[in-house]
Amino acid sequence: MVVMCSSLGMVARALGDFAAAQEALDQALALNRAIGDRRYEAAVRADLALLYHQRGDNQAAREHAQTALELAVALGARCVEGTALTRLGHALDGLADWQGAEAAYQAALRLRRELGAETLALEPLAGLARLALAHGDLTAAQTRADELAAALEAGVSVWVDELPQIFLSCYQVLCAAGDARAARVLEAACARLDSQANQISDATRRQAFWEDVPAHRALLAARAAQEGKR
């Protein structure tokens, strides 16, 4: 039941139905507390951290991510630790704690690679690319984006919660650098989203998918801007 609620919450989040995601993840957290499963509690709190970050409440995101991290470290749950660190990075970035965000992303990247989870390493790698770009270090940003672009072009074969954000981060850096690969990355990202959106029959929910998830909204705007230049 806990896993089902958590999974439903993350699916709803990816579709832009944040209210349903909140309800499902809150229920999962309550169930975890009732049965005392701290490992799942850590995972659910990490998922809540991502949801709150995408809703713009980075203080709540930081609190959930920090609790998830502490639980994961205490339990030796290293995969969950990597997730919590990544989402702590998002929250700290949103709170303008640049140094803290970079430290969290770096720690997540090291841990993911130690575990051989190269695909999951793309999430903190994208975070580091965004931070470098935001602070005017285009050389460092492009080094990260080169890694992202190579992985995305090769194809991501496992579920990654933040794949649209990875595409967006890569596109933004390549675009800033005047790299011709930017157009291909944007096209591939939007093709994936178009495919998902076309499976949503309800017009209101389809609109939420495009407009309520920050990365989806930004990719849609980028495509519109590119089309406007033609």
Describe the structure.
The protein has 230 residues and is mainly alpha-helical. It has two domains: 1-114, Tetratricopeptide repeat domain (Serine Threonine Protein Phosphatase 5, Tetratricopeptide repeat), CATH 1.25.40.10; 118-230, no CATH class. 80% of the residues lie in helices and 0% in strands. The chain has helices at 2-14, 18-35, 38-54, 58-75, 78-94, 98-114, 122-134, 138-154, 163-176, 181-197, 203-211, 214-228. Helix 3 (38-54) packs parallel to helix 5. It is globular and about 55 Å long. The model has no long low-confidence stretch (mean pLDDT 93).
Topology record:
Layout: H1 2-14, H2 18-35, H3 38-54, H4 58-75, H5 78-94, H6 98-114, H7 122-134, H8 138-154, H9 163-176, H10 181-197, H11 203-211, H12 214-228
Structure summarized in a few sentences:
The chain has twelve helices and no strands. It has 230 residues and is mostly helical.
* Strand segment tally: 0
Helix content: over 70%
- Main sheet specs: none
Could you tell me the strand content as a percent range? under 5%
Element order: H for helix, E for strand: HHHHHHHHHHHH
Report the C-alpha radius of gyration, rounded. Answer: 17 Å
Compute the separation of the termini in Å: 50 Å
CATH architectural label of the largest domain: Alpha Horseshoe
Query: Could you say how many structural domains there are in total?
Result: 2
Question: Overall 3D geometry?
Answer: globular
Can you identify the CATH superfamily of the largest domain? Tetratricopeptide repeat domain
CATH topology of the largest domain: Serine Threonine Protein Phosphatase 5, Tetratricopeptide repeat
Low-confidence stretches: none
What structural category do the secondary elements indicate?
A: mainly alpha
- Would you state the CATH class of the largest domain? Mainly Alpha
Distinct helical segment count: 12
The average pLDDT value, as a whole number, equals: 93
